[in-house]
Amino acid sequence: MSISVIVPTLLRTFTQDKKRVEVQGNTVLEVIEHLERDYPGVKERLIGDGQVHRFVNIYVNDDDIRFADNLATALKPGDAITILPAVAGG
Amino acid sequence: MACNHSGVCLMSPLLQDCSLSGSFAPSATGFAPLAASLRYQATALGLEPRITPGDPAQQGLGFTLCHPDLQPVQAQVHAWPDGSAQAFSEHTLQAACGLMSVHGRASGKAQGLGLDYVANLSASLALQGAFAAALGQLRGGEFRQVQSSMAAAGVLGIGQYLAGATAGAEAEHLLPGATCAKQRPPFVSADGVHFELETLDAEPWRRFWSAVGIDGEAAGQGWKAFLLRYAKAIAPMPPAFRQALSRLSMARIEALCALNGMAVCPLRSLQQRAADTDLSRQRQQGPWSFTAGLGSDAGWPALAKGGLPLSGLTVIESCRRIQGPLAGHLLAMLGAEVVRIELPGGDPLRSMAPCVDGVSVRFDALNRLKQVRELDIKSAAGREELYERVRNAAVFLHNWAPGKAAELGLDRADLARVNPGLVYAYAGGWGHDRPGEPLPGTDFMVQAWSGVGERIGQASATPGGSLFTVLDVLGGVVAAQGVSAALLQRALSGQAVRVDSSLLGAANLLCEPLLHAASAPDPVLKGVYPTRDGLLAIDCQTPEQLQRLAQMLDCDLSAGPPGQDAALRSALASQSAATWQQVLGDADIPTSVVVQDLSQLAEDGRLKTCLSVNTYTSVNAHWSFR
Asked: B426: helix, coil or strand?
């Protein structure tokens, strides 16, 4: 299943400046694994020790995956993943 | 020197060999809160401020910094960057600089903070400029005069929001009243206690709200809204959140917070804060804590001709978010070469919308003058490189969580081994005495704990503090000022100094005038009023100004509110706010158009010299030196 991923500026160095890429995957983790295969280096910017980094938010459509099933969150055709920096604290 | 309970040797007032004299006598002008803040800060720094008559030929408030090794440094603080003498007050400056607009995004309407915010920002910045000029002289420069303005300080305070509002196609359009003034933090318990919640992670948030009866999907929507506080000064929470908490007692809420790892802080009153045992010493020392070090004879690079006072000095900054980066930004504005240490891959906030040319304008607003070195300071190799960079630096500045510096081997003692003359600066949350810990040292927690939140809530008719990052911004200014003072002391005496500043110190500074038994008299008439076109802020500070206003408007203002309000509204409806600003300003009545749309700021002729309109509108260097 092909999923759109909207790439933040800091990761576009990995995606040849593409703002949106299409990758395969049935869960968020699978999408990230496929991203890593197509664009090596992306994964460690998103995940460490099996968890999404504290300073990264990943949304499936409008929903933060931390409030669904985290990296195991299931995807359906037409879903879009957005990666954004987390802004907590001053 | 005196040693505190933890055995750290605290210094006598830092700059006691310097002195300060100036026209900071109490007065009924708009400069009064600036003068009060200057007197207080100068006393805390050991400058023994002496009041001298103002020079009638000079506009603004002037002061002189003296030391036997220096030519006197003359500082002049104007109301407006263009030197205009138009009548003003704290209230009208907050209107003109966009502060009312940003505070109004989540407080229901354009309104002031109810604290002397611009005056305190401006006083810290003015002293910082004078310290920098003195340092510049000791490094071989001229720097006899430094000019700044109160309005420019206000604009500097909202610089990030201004960037966001002017970022081309992605610009944010958030006007006063953009979000509901009730459906936002702080929250209220069933027994009527107002309180702030805080967590930097989604997991405690999800667990806490689940325990309160909010499901995961809704909690996710609430988290998204909660995260908007720091970036956009809003937190539009769905009503279910407030409703859920309003059914629980404070004791129950505190128990659920403890169980789920959520921090909670009831809003404390200024009276409660005044009774804290730590406050008296903190008031005496000011918003900084200076600790003596060994010192060094090692010199700094000579000042190149035409440079700024800090040109050629290196500052290593390892800071994230607002307070620390703003401090580094101000040092860069003074000429320092600031090297920003970011984690490998760069600071994620570089991608925070809105972006121009691929960079977050909000990030750029605080970091555009710096070099960047990506470094994993948790690795041995990263630390070694950092030690190497610190060896030749003048300042190391960080804002890590408490205890992290020691854990990383990057505490003051670690870096003093590499560079004994280093100024080591920590811009933290709770400061040296750490009275509020173990609460997270974030803006909204410190607002709640310090009494600032309650005060702003009272002035704004909201449940509590501002979602404008009041303390991060003032804390950043105070941190940079502390570093400038420490650099001056290093240049005068060779002594290396550690400087701790904090959000709580910034809060104390804001509350200082309110803690005096004899606080300032209530204004004669102060408010924000609709006109034929736009809002107008008026602040009559004397009965004479009120009388003149009544004459100009041809209405009776003797009744007091609410009759006064109705009469004013009716009279002001005949002209636009811009016209009234001109007419009433000419009559020496403090008045200003309330800037609601920040993108209009650059159109105000009075502010022109402090702004640059490029891909977004940025705030220029605060000081001009001669």
From this structure: strand
The C-alpha angle B441, B444, B447, rounded to 5 degrees, equals 90
The count of other CB atoms within 10 Å of the CB of residue B101 is: 30
Q: Which residues of A touch B399 (CB under 8 A)?
A: none
B230, A12: Cβ pair inside 8 Å?
A: no
Among B201, B230, B348, beta carbon nearest to A90 = B230
Amino acid present at B587: A
What is the DSSP code (8-state) at residue B345?
Answer: T
With vertex at residue B429, the alpha carbon angle to CA B433 and CA B485, rounded to the nearest 5 degrees, is: 80
Q: What is the pLDDT of residue B3?
A: 46
Q: B201 CA to chain A: closest CA distance, Å?
A: 7
Q: Which residue is associated with the tokens 């354009």?
A: B110
∠ CA B218-B472-B119, nearest 5°, is 130
Quick one: tokens of B583?
């007419």
**In the prediction, which pLDDT does B4 show?**
45
Q: How far is CA B465 from CA B14, B31, B186, B471, B542, in A?
A: 32, 25, 8, 11, 29
3-state secondary structure of B265: strand
Check if the beta carbon of residue B121 is closer than 8 Å to that of residue B38.
Answer: no
Going by pLDDT thresholds of 50, 70 and 90, the confidence category of residue B517 is low
Find the length of chain A: 90
ipTM above 0.90, yes or no: no
Interface contacts A/B by beta carbons within 8 Å: 78
The DSSP bridge partners found for residue B624 are B147
Neighbours of B229 (CB within 10 A): 24
Strands lying side by side in the sheet with B624-625: B50-51, B19-22, B61-66, B73-78, B145-149, B624-625
Chain B nearest C-alpha distance from A24 (Å): 25
Non-local (6+) Cβ contacts of B34 within 8 A are B24, B61, B77, B119, B122, B123, B126, B150
Question: C-alpha distances in angstroms, B28 versus B88, B511, B597?
Answer: 11, 20, 31
Give the whole-angstrom CA distance, residue B521 versus residue B593.
25
pLDDT at B522 over 80: no
- How many C-beta atoms surround the C-beta of residue B614 within 10 A? 8
**Separation between Cα atoms, residue A63 and residue B288, nearest integer Å:** 42
> A77 and chain B: CB distance < 8 Å anywhere?
no
